[in-house]
Amino acid sequence: MIKTAKFLVLALIISGSALAQSTASKLSLWYDKPAANWNEALPIGNGRLAAMVFGDVANDRLQLNEETIWAGEPGNNVPKNVYEPIQQIRKLLFEGKYKEAQDLSNQTFPRQAPAGLNYGMQYQTAGNLFLRFTGQEDVRNYRRDLDISKAVASVSYQNKGVNFRREYIASIPDQVLAVRLTADKPGSISFTLEMNSPFKQYQVQTQNGKLLLSGLSSSIDNKQGKLRYQVQVQPKTEGGKTSTTDSTIVIANANSVTLYISIGTNYINYKDISGNEIEKASRYLNAAFKKSYAGMKASHMASYKKYFDRVSLDLGLTDAIKKPTNIRIADFAKGNDPALTSLYFQFGRYLLISSSMPGSHPANLQGKWNEKLSPPWDSKYTININTEMNYWPAEVTNLTEMHQPLFAMLKDLAVSGKESASQMYHARGWNVHHNTDLWRITGPVDGGFYGMWPMGGAWLSQHLWQHYLYSGDKTFLKEYYPVLKGAALFYADVLQEEPSHKWLVVTPSMSPENTYQSSVGITAGATMDNQLVFDVFSNAIRSAAILGTDNAFADTLQTLIKRLPPMQVGRFGQLQEWLQDWDKENDRHRHVSHLYGLFPSAQISPFNSPELFEAAKNTLVSRGDKSTGWSMGWKVNLWARLLDGNRAYKLIQDQLNPAPMETSGQNGGTYPNLFDAHPPFQIDGNFGCTSGIAEMLVQSHDGDIHLLPAIPDQWKQGSVKGLIARGGFVVDMNWKDGKITYLKLKSSLGGNCRLRVHNALQAKGARSLKAAEGQNPNPFYAVAAIQKPLIAANAPLKGLIPIKGNLYDFNTEAGKVYEFGNK
Ligand code: FUC
To answer: What predicted TM-score, i.e. pTM, was given to this entire model?
Structure first.
């Protein structure tokens, strides 16, 4: 009897620790080799600072970033005297002279920035910190790891019988990077610290036990590089001896070492760079230096976990997790590694926390990780898809705080964008074209083809309204109402009446980066623009009503909204991309801009606009699957919205495919460090796919909370906790064979909860669920009242197969939790 009991206890302990171990590796990226290149290195970051950890035993490298190190200086890039040519382009377009319109646009806005103007600045690296060791010739048991449940990277190995460990953190509360070196034999740690930077001019020196690198950002186009920065590194050793040369720090025979790494710049805000970079770097460093590594690590992990631990996702666990991450990516297509999908999902959340903490700048094209002075597309904010995509996971994956930097940027753009609105278009309000940067430029970039897209503010400002739909935060809505109103004012002023139907359209503009004739993309009334203006006006109208303000303005917008073009279904059953049926049947263009109406917007619904839903599907089928990383990430969301889990999963497989070595092109995939490849690395695909995985599990845009709307065959069984639905509902659920076996909903705001589920549910406790009828009375679930679509007479639409399921209503109270089981 006693023996059995003992055995049981032992067995429990063993299985408990095995489970703990497997959970730890479930949320780790790990490798058995140091990083051979940047796309193998591991990212750490705290929003402001970022580093790539290479982990080489003899020559470790940390590539360093600080988010405000950008080329140039304050100032916008609004071209002068372009109102008249813009009027002329409008006229040519309405006369059907499309090529002439494009030519005039290219002439007015040259491909390269003309003298006296710029097309945005580059985000630039701070440089590198090297740790150089000698005598590393007997290395065994090497492991390099990034534990995203803790936001700690590490390297461990054995050399000549001594076990060494290095840990790397980007402390959120202390605003420094820290590296901790330990060994299990005293006196074993000896290395030299060095720094360099790719800038032509920079200084490295030692001063009072610190290693310092000072630099100045680049001069580009009409801007002088005026962003000054300083990196400061200070070691704290236990045992051994520390000495300095004029440009290195030498540590000999220490028991353990902590490196404190701080970076400061002279940036204060986008108009003011009168700060003191040395003072700023010293302030963070001196405060952090007083703390032990253990204390810093504990408070860093607590700050990180506060956000990260809100969501868990289990799609199953197999032996595949025993393999290094690069091998798992290579093997993913073989199936049988569901935990790589959940790791990829959580890695997206890790990246958002690490690159977009409240108070920092928004995540740029590479988040905050960049080793170059002239990175691809300058690592700017490309806002005709990429920046928005970065923030798709913010609300639904319970990281609403990480959305804040984007809102702060919108406040800036609503000021700088008045210049482009008034000078270029003679319009009130504000606007921005397809790029912006640290200096909040709002003029066109890259010339009259790519750059003539005045819709950046229209798309970015959707994020404000979406944040309100998730949070119900009226104080926030009030604070940002002027930004929403300013966006609406701009379009109220620039809409033009087109001659054939007298619809009101934005022109000149384009369906991002696509053409309808060879090298001609400039247009009037692109479908995406019509959808965006519809949303901009709807958001302003609804916000004004909620805040009880601006009745007359809202009435004006109501009148205008009715005159926007309806969506149209073209001759091969596709959703038309342009006002005319110009779509090519085999168009494989990476942008699927007109599907904005399907996702992220909610203007296309299988229930309210089945023809558009079918047309959107036809468009997506004809566009094909494989493309750039971000395009595939978008398509995961789109197939989820089309309620096709297997096709969404196919896109996840395409994305989680080893990325080719090329650094340009349209063959996206995933690098060994799980970074998305456009190629090259672009972070948007990571965020897009993370959002898509959430969208496969929960949707809340179409009048109800749709649970498991797009579950693929591969996800037979699973559980998720902490996803957010609009109206402030927190969703936890378990499922098996496509049926929900347990559901817990927390209501943060109260109100009617309408559930769409594929199996019958039973409420726990005394409450009952009633079949839903009519409109959902919950105001966060109001559906878009879009216009009736126009459908080409010959459009081969087949009609939709009715969507089965149960639709339930129940009333909720704020703060209460509701539980359900399978009936
Ligand atoms: C848009 C895309 C490109 C790339 C760039 C940063 O211009 O069309 O594919 O992602 O942004």
So the answer is: 0.97
